Amino acid sequence: MTPLDLKPHYSRFLKGHVNKLHFAAHSHHFWPDVTRDAHMEYWDDCAKSSDEKWNKIFSEVLPKTQEHIARILNLKHKNQIAFAPNTHELTARLLSLFVGRPQLSVLTTSSEFHSWRRQILRLKELPQVQLEVASTENFLTNRRELIDHLKNSLKKSPDIFFVSQVFFDSGLALTDDELLELCEAKSASTIMVVDGYHGFAAIPTDLSKLEGRIFYLGGGYKYAQAGEGVGFMVVPHGKWRPAYTGWFAEYAQLAKPAGAEVGYAEDGMAFMGATQDASGFYRFNAAWDLFEKLGLTVSKIHQYIQGLQSTFLTAFPESFAYEKGLNPLFKDLHWHGHFLTFEALSEESGQNIQNELKSLGILIDRRGKRLRFGFGLYQDKTDVLGLCERLKTLAVKTK
Ligand SMILES: Cc1ncc(COP(=O)(O)O)c(C=O)c1O
Questions:
Q1: Same domain, residue pair 280 and 354
Q2: What would the pLDDT profile of 76-97 be if each residue is shown by its tens digit?
Q3: Are residues 344 and 196 located together in one domain of the fold?
Q4: Which residues surround ligand 1 with Cβ inside 6 Å?
Q5: Cα 317 to ligand 1 centre (Å)
């Protein structure tokens, strides 16, 4: 593969991080420069059109975002994609489908993102809510164990089955085939939700076999490089009537007199909420227009990141991991998220290591005792080798 030279497209963020090695692309990917012009275009559209800007947003901007997402995920029905400022809001709308029902049963895993974990644990305080959490602890060494556990629990027909495509606390990922296997194991009444935030625009994902059968969540501030404000959800066809609903869910009917019935759009828009800052969609479109122009598909992106990851592993000073008591939580990089996770001996030790790295200008992030090194398109081999050199000095220093 010829090396990609994408750095010139990230000149502003790189200028903001001079002398820093930002290896937290999985947390906040740098945005390409074109997103700045797009951001300004949003401002100019507001100035030009005030209230009428919504016409452009609904007729041009959002459809274009839907097109990009549908292309990235290989979906046929772009109108089945709903938006919100974040994914938490979309999960709240999903949960609101069950308002008024006597019971809600949820099957999920121990590696789900904080917003979902908090939300569902809080709801579990209600006597009507039953929760089963399948442990992901052995997933690295025995992925069948988790899949079989989930398949077994799906026999109980939970109302909602919520699982990540890429687990945020390790980077380990379910394959498209494994997701399909899980989907085929569920009963028709179970709503399956895949949190694709760490998979979308990172791992080449083909949802064609799952389209219409699962909900898929993703958003803009990681690998999609659009920043905040772009949560999305791929919605199966259906007459959805979430109880938590806002005026966007019936945008097409606005000019008509309000009826007694609460109407909903007949596509994914049924899950829309209300007024939100739309600048993120402008940024998203600008980034993905650029990548399309450059012929940069998610497969190529993934290949590039895998290249950086393997450079990292080749040059990685084992002495650093040994000195710090770090345990790698990855094995097969062919199908893995864009960050590599090491587990420290304790949370305190993890925090100390993160601080030491920071003092050397290395920016990574941490979840509990797990340190995450994330790779992005604005890095090249030299950055990765530079990272390993700095890690080497740290191992020597502590001897
Ligand atoms: C797995 C996963 N899901 C979802 C999100 C985003 O959640 P929200 O859009 O609700 O902030 C993140 C963000 O870090 C995440 O890691």
A1: no
A2: 999 999 999 999 999 999 999 9
A3: no
A4: 86-88, 113, 115, 164, 168, 195, 197-198, 219, 231
A5: 31
